[in-house]
Amino acid sequence: MAKREIKKAVLAYSGGLDTSIILKWLQDEYNCEVVTFTADLGQGEEVEPARQKALDMGIKPENIFILDLREEFVKDFVFPMFRANTIYEGEYLLGTSIARPLISKKQIEIAAQTGADAVSHGATGKGNDQVRFELGYLGLNGDIAVIAPWREWDLNSREKLLAYAETHGIKIEKKKGQASPYSMDANLLHISYEGLVLEDPSKEPDEDMWLWSVSPENAPDTAEYITIEYKKGDPVAINGEAMSPATILTELNAYGNKHGIGRIDIVENRYVGMKARGCYETPGGTIMLKGHRAIESITLDREAAHMKDELMPRYAKLIYNGYWWSPEREMLQAAIDKTQEHVEGTVKLKLYKGNVMVVGRESEKSLFSEAHSTFEEDDVYDQSDAEGFIKLNALRLMIAGKLRK
């Protein structure tokens, strides 16, 4: 099939092996100008070196974009997702999934700014990320051309990639020590591990795989208490100190890593059809989720809370599958955000050896009524009212029971 005519492409570029090869491949295969975009999402690695790498490969200075997106990532993507208490398949806090719509958005914005007619990514043809990136691109600009090299080239092994790099003079930094056998993705919310030894779901991962957190066994022997203040469903302060969204998540990550919190090992169902085993560290997010559910427990109406819980799996699947920019996700978000108008107050948490325990919660908008719930004598609740309540709810059961006899 003939190559499409592309004048300029915006590449999601990290400066690593895959995207460096993609950059050169785009120049050669499509004979197009390439714009590089590198996002700082709090992955813990310097992003500025990508600038020099791009320059070394002939990219014009005005076509190199390196953006600090940490605050936007947490404020506009992580926090809205956590208002829904979002978990995919009971465990996964969607750390990779929630980063992709922001990257897609910025690529489309840069394409408009630079006059590019295409965007490109380094996701493989077996994974979820290709779907997430491309649904984002096309949802924001249906006329943009999408180039997915892994679906076009035959460089389907690390050996072929290295050979290509050597043939074309692409400098690949070799890290000291043994290279990690895992495919990893990191941002301010989490770090993920996939591949090789993890492809056997019966094998326990080696302890030295985990890069962020101490093991629960080696965590401090003394519990630590923290308080998180919430307003409209979002955390705004830790231990009484107001912080920006990205700073809050950074601080919670530090607490979680210290206490061995947020490790999971799961087999998940990918959107493209196969099951995949992944390990994740989501320390701050795990703490944040526990705190959010705690403040909701005293400020959110029962039926609103139950409906949120019913909607959450659908919402989680939309994010996991890449539909952040869909009208149905926006519809659910509007409903979720409406429930958060009075979700404010303070939660006290106890952190100890991999566990997050709620030990207190208070709010000026609390719906908890001690007068009604006390086991002691009260003047507000007539216990005899429960008899009629029970009989009315039992009526259909009584009628059906007589028929069964």
Description:
The protein is α/β, with parallel strands linked by helices. The chain folds into three domains: 8-71 and 96-167, 3-Layer(aba) Sandwich (Rossmann fold); 183-362, Argininosuccinate synthetase, chain A, domain 2 (Alpha-Beta Complex); 377-404, no CATH class. 40% of the residues lie in helices and 19% in strands. The chain contains twelve helices and 14 strands. It has a five-stranded parallel beta sheet, sandwiched between helices. Helix 1 (17-29) links the parallel strand 1 and strand 2 (33-40). Helix 9 (302-321) packs antiparallel against helix 10. The N and C termini lie far apart (72 Å).
What is the rounded distance between the termini? Answer: 72 Å
Q: For the report, how would you describe the main beta sheet?
A: 5 strands, parallel
The number of strands is 14
Structural class: alpha/beta
- Radius of gyration using CA atoms only: 25 Å
What is the architecture of the largest domain at the second tier of CATH? Alpha-Beta Complex
Mean pLDDT score: 94
Shape: elongated
CATH topology value of the largest domain: Argininosuccinate synthetase, chain A, domain 2
- As laid out across the biggest beta sheet, the strand order is 3-2-1-4-5
Q: Would you state the CATH class of the largest domain?
A: Alpha Beta
Pfam family, one: Arginosuc_synth
Binding site for L-citrulline: 92, 97, 128, 132, 183, 192, 268, 280
GO biological process, one term: L-arginine biosynthetic process
Main location: cytoplasm
